[in-house]
Amino acid sequence: MQQLTHRFVSNEQLTSFIDRHRLRNERGMVQVASGVNEERIAQILKRLMRLLPEFSIIGSSTCGEIVQGQCYSNSVALQFCLFNKGTEVVVTPLDEMTTQERELNLSFLSGASPKVAIIYVNAFSVNPDTVIEHLSAANPGCCVAGGVAADNGQFQSAYTIAGDRILKAGSVCAFLYGENLHFSVDSYQGWRPIGKTFTVTKAAGNHVYELDRKPILTVYQEYMGEHIAEQFPRNVIEFPLMIRRRECFVLRAPIGYTHCQSGIKYAGTVKEGDKVSFSFADVSAILASTPEFEPQPNVCTLTFACAARRSFLRGRMSEEVERVAAKTSAIGGFFYGEFSTIEGKTELLNLSTTVLQLSEEPLKRSCKKTTQQSLPNSTQALANLASKASLEHEELLFSLQQHQRALSKSSIISVTNSMGVITYVNKKFEQVSGYGANELIGNTHSVIRHPKMKDRVFQQLWRTITAKKRWQGLLRNRRKDGSSYYVKTVIYPITDASGEIKEFVSIRNDVTDIVTARKAIQKHNIDTLTQLPNRAKLSRDLERTPVDCVAILDVKNFKVLNDYWGVNHGDFIIKAVAERLRSCCMNYSLKVYHINGAVFALRPLKPISTEAFRSQVLRIKDALELSDIVIDEHHHEINFSIGIGASSKRALAYAESAAIEAKNEHFITSIIIKTEDAQANNFYFWLEEVRLALQEERVLPYFQEVATVAENPLPNKYEALARIQLRNGEVVSPGVFLNYLKKTRYYPQLTRLMVGFAVRQSILSRCPISVNLASQDILNRETVNYITDALQGNPEAKIIFEMTETESIKDFNAMNRFIHHIRSFGAKVAIDDFGSGYSNFVYLVEMKPDYIKIDGSIIKSICTNKNSLHVARSIVDLARGLNIKTIAEFVCDRETLVTLTEIGIDYAQGYFIAEPKAEITR
After folding, report:
1. Pair 476, 486: CB distance under 8 Å
2. Is the pLDDT of residue 97 over 60?
3. How far, CA to CA in Å, does 376 sit from each of 383, 718, 830?
4. Fold of the domain spanning 697-908
5. For labelling alongside 200, which of 35, 231, 729, 871 has CA 20 to 30 A away?
6. CB of 416 within 8 A of CB of 404?
7. pLDDT at 101 over 60
8. pLDDT band at 335 (very low <50, low <70, confident <90, very high)
């Protein structure tokens, strides 16, 4: 391929140029950039057709011409591309082609598709975006470049060229074919948004009528000045609209008014709903970002630049043109928009410069970045200042609007004046209270005050808010029908610029269900069989008192006794032991708890040394074992395994661990003490085991079935459970090492590994798989990113994330963001261990889970403890009202399963249902 360029001066010089280069017998394509009137260009075209019958001619009118790095006006630039290796070109007016002609032209050369399309569109008669959409649809994979015909800045009419024809409407295109044809397209912009972001609220094609529901002409007058109509669009073309399209920004320059004079016509489509802003460019930044093209042999280079870009850069446009076109001997012109194929997608650009290079040999990258630096200047600083201020304002406004909508939908809101008279209530207030806004506005909140609320509460409330401080608390209100409801309330005083209180804003959340359920949970603190406080009560007491010691007493061989003599006989023994313990502990300032079965706990009522506590526990043990328990004349010798835990935060966990070891020791020892210092050895042992298991891929996923129990069968699910194969071959569950692991960097690795196992198994088995997450997982950015990638990359996976409650959730904002994010990928959320603490019911409000897993301590005693049954039924009823599915864990026998079925549980999980397995078989 060979390139020759010529700036037309006269017919004689054109003829001499053609003869000198012996073009009459060559074949190829002529590109025409014309700044002259139709009559003059018609003469030139006829001469070209007569002298060069084997050449195809295409072009358009321009707003300036480019010839070998020089800018001209009212001139004619000609480029002659000579094809040497079989490249073919078809030039045709697209709008005049019949379907048959289009199919013929686009499939000639044995069905080949065009590789490159050079197109010129008259935007005064047709929407350029519509043209390239049709062109791209008909020719997928074809590279498109070209321009929107211009008319020397008059914005009245333009023309395109096909052969010796001058077209006043429509578009023309040159399709290039050839196995040896190579091409590259580069585009350069440099504009950036400035000021407010608008939403296009009324538009059709490339006509825009409204921004943010305001007439667009009004918007231009407000932001550009009252006198823009005098020279529109020349006086605003340097500030085009910027639209975000996928990952790039697209500019749209105005080219005139619509026919009705109520809108603005742009050089490209603007759609309703587009987010747009005015844009601005810094001259030095644009020029600094423009690369310099180096010459290449046998390459034809075409330049398509925007008229508005030339207007903006003014005299410095020649600097950019020289870098792009001087060394490449390129020709081109200035247009009202440019076409460029960016990452396989053809876009209509404005205020850009596009460079198309063609060759019949492989192209090498021939441009290099300039070394010129863009120095800061006052214009740049003002643009940054305006953009930053506008962005901050929009972000703040958007955030406030989001908060207002969220609060209005989920919370009960009212506003009063400084005297406490209601001036505003939202719909939620009306719905919950039963009063209409007209009944509330003008009154005080005494209209909903419940008579059982103490006067001192409101006196303290009023003292707080009139002191310009926030007040929060729980209030009991009365509805219009006389029924009561509870609200968690926060009242904020709002002051004016002088600091005087102007009004009060009250935000309430209806927590009636939570308060009701909490009362039921409080009854669960006492064990029905022994009338002793239970394990849940022990956990809370340990949190509230500065006691570092706990003892666990387990009756040895109680299971054998219970199996032989029966459950009723066993219950008598448990009650007898409870009475003896209660009596003994009165002498030592100890409190006794019934944990489960024949397991009891002792807690000092005040701080005591570990050794002194051990001595007291041993004396109690000796006293209990001194005499038999007699039931129905049967004597039962009672012995205990004892574990003592000494820790400021984990005394109960250490005690339970020690008790298990003591029980396993049988008669070797009856008491084991675990302290934080002793646990350090275990910590390092398990740290090394887990580290090597992760490194050597000895972490194994097990899956336990979660079976449907509901009348209307639901699809079964499985829970993913981590197991580690130790170096000696033993497989252990995380209960022995997880508490140690959570303090190390290996815990997030284990979580991510289990998530990956769950995703793969869900796809393989086509079953929902649940996987446990702790609050620290949700705060780990790498873990959250891993979860996001796993869900996004495997949309067919059905994953349920169980939020464990062994550690309270403190950052509900992070939790809610995470839950909203994973739900967008189809994942679901469950609350684990529900009923083990007061905070559960707050979780229902904050997390809105899909599933509740009722704590095993409730389920295990549901057949023997009426309180457990009542609590479980309350939780199921509450969940059903909130449209949440319930899961019972630790289902270990048929009697428990039958009871759960009767109260309406949805799913059951436990060893009676299925043991954890390494594979899912269906």
Report:
1. yes
2. no
3. 11, 61, 54
4. TIM Barrel (3.20.20)
5. 231
6. no
7. no
8. very high
294 CB-side CA count, 13 A: 8
- Token pair 């295990």 in the structure block, residue: 860
Distance of alpha carbon 248 from alpha carbon 251, whole angstroms: 10
Number of residues written out for the chain: 922
Cα 365 to chain centroid distance, Å, stands at 38
Token digits for 549?
């010691």
Rg (CA), the chain: 40
Locate 492 and state its tokens. Answer: 């904020």
Long-range contacts of 742-746 (CB under 8 A, 24+ apart): 742/774, 742/776, 743/683, 744/687, 744/690, 746/687, 746/690, 746/691, 746/694
Angle between the N-to-C axes of helices 38-51 and 11-20, in degrees from 0 to 180, rounded to the nearest 10: 30
Express each pLDDT in 859-907 by its tens digit.
988 999 888 899 899 999 999 999 999 999 999 999 999 999 999 999 9
CB crowding 494-524: b at 16 or more within 10 Å, else e: eeeeeeebebbebbbbbbebbbebeebbeeb
Residue 614, token pair as written in the block: 């051990």
526-675 architecture in CATH?
2-Layer Sandwich (3.30)
Q: Are strands 76-82 and 28-34 parallel, antiparallel or unpaired?
A: antiparallel
Report the pLDDT averaged over residues 488-511.
Answer: 91
Pairing of strands 640-646, 634-636: unpaired
382-395: pLDDT as tens digits: 556 566 656 666 66
Q: Which residue matches tokens 């719909």?
A: 427
pLDDT at 74: 94
Q: What is the DSSP string of 343-385?
A: TTEEEEESS-EEEEEEESS-----EE---------HHHHHHHH
Q: Does domain 411-510 have CATH number 3.30.450.20?
A: yes
Nearest Cα to 705, choosing from 691, 723, 719?
A: 719
As a whole number of Å, the end-to-end CA separation of the chain is 67
The DSSP code for 230 is G
DSSP count for the chain of H helices, then E strands? 28, 49
Cβ atoms of 520 and 870 closer than 8 Å:
yes
Closest CA to 735 of 777, 686, 780, 698: 686
Can you give the three-state secondary structure of 856-887, one letter per residue? HHHHCCCCCCHHHHHHHHHHHHHHHHCCCEEE
Cross-strand partners of 252: 241
Which strand ranges, in their side-by-side order, compose the sheet holding 171-177? 88-93, 171-177, 116-121, 143-148, 338-342, 345-349
- Is it the case that residue 541 has pLDDT exceeding 50? yes
Flag whether pLDDT at 227 surpasses 80: no
Q: What is the CATH number of domain 194-280?
A: 2.40.10
Give the pLDDT confidence score for residue 369 in this predicted structure: 63
Nearest residue to 700 (alpha-carbon basis) of 722, 680, 717, 685? 722
* Distances in whole angstroms, Cα of residue 199 to Cα of each of 193, 202, 262: 14, 9, 18
Measured at the CA of 851, the angle between CA 845 and CA 857, to 5 degrees, comes to 95
Is the model's pLDDT at 194 over the cut of 70? Answer: yes
Among the listed residues 551, 602, 580, 525, the one whose alpha carbon sits nearest the alpha carbon of residue 838: 525
Return the residue matching tokens 């909203």.
Answer: 820
- Non-local (6+) Cβ contacts of 365 within 8 A are 184
Strands of 557-698 (E only): list them: 590-596, 599-604, 629-631, 634-636, 640-646, 671-675
Look at residue 398 and tell me whether its pLDDT is greater than 70.
no
How far apart (Å, rounded) are the C-alpha atoms in residues 629 and 638? 7
Question: CA-CA distances (angstroms) from residue 291 to 57, 362, 368?
Answer: 30, 21, 5
Side by side, the strands of the sheet bearing 182-188 are 70-72, 65-67, 331-335, 299-306, 353-359, 182-188
Give me the sheet containing 549-555, strands edge to edge. 590-596, 599-604, 549-555, 640-646, 671-675
